[in-house]
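Quick one, T. Sequence first:
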Amino acid sequence: MAEPIRVLLVDDHQVVRRGLRTFLEVQDDIEVVGEAADGAEGVARAEELRPGVVLMDVRMPGMDGIDALRKLRELGNPARVLIVTSFTERRTVVPALRAGAAGYVYKDVDPDALAAAIRSVHAGHILLQPEVADALLTQEGANSGQGRGGSLTEREREVLGLIADGRSNREIARALVLSEKTVKTHVSNILMKLDLADRTQAALWAVRHEASG
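Structure tokens:
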């Protein structure tokens, strides 16, 4: 049996943490390994406990969730971070994605959807809500790579489409019958050609340009 997904809860409201823990602890494949009440404590606990997934609130006293996320990336912590937000706070989602978040969930997320989201990002996927992807890109002004899609090879377009579907490099390699090393090279070429910083931006770019057609 596979090891359970180790999850750290970071939220300044104890009631929220307690509710999340109560639900997640009944999941056979998820283990809550710790809690933190603010960003600074969350970073410290993530370094100590090395969870697979961090469920991070955005608005907290002191160090907020986005600054905590940036600090984790600076430290090279491999935890996948799910930001907790709401559609009305989408201005916070773009900086979170740019800072390296694996995705975001809404504050009123259905419990089963939350568990599915944790499993998804732990597996290496990027969690994008389709109904807000275009709004995020519009707010971001993220037209990086505009008009450069024609410079991609057919294989790179296939890889980009799978990135937009939230596939990990391993899954892309399996789908296209390639080595992971080759997939990494394709991803690097895509980012360079489209002048994008990371695969999250690539996924957003792909969603926007597919929608705009």
